[in-house]
């Protein structure tokens, strides 16, 4: 087996598994497209992990605007600092466990996919490497607005 330790621009490569043996330009284009999609999915999983983590943190009720605090009616109707903590609803234990299990499963998929993409890059094929880079750019470009919407 001849493994190169520098980048080559060949249209022949074996990726990850023996059955993913690419020979020819059509197979290389298809393989680059698959790797690109896997990288986009990898970036979307990062956003999903962060979003699930933020959903687990309870949010306190909204505070009154500062200008409303000047009147005595606003002060009488606003909750005290000590009662604010009791208005935050806690998640039931079963829901917390399910959320944590989902986060763990997503983490395993995320790490596995990351290592698979790393091994694809370690094939030292320029086209596969560019597919991973392009997928990362596209994935971040698509996922960033989703992340900023939830933060």
TrEMBL record:
Keywords: Copper, Copper transport, Ion transport, Membrane, Transmembrane, Transmembrane helix, Transport
Signal peptide extent: none
Transmembrane segment boundaries: 26-45, 104-121, 127-147
GO cellular component, one term: late endosome membrane
Keyword Transferase appears in the UniProt entry: no
Coiled coil: none
Protein name stated in the entry: Copper transport protein
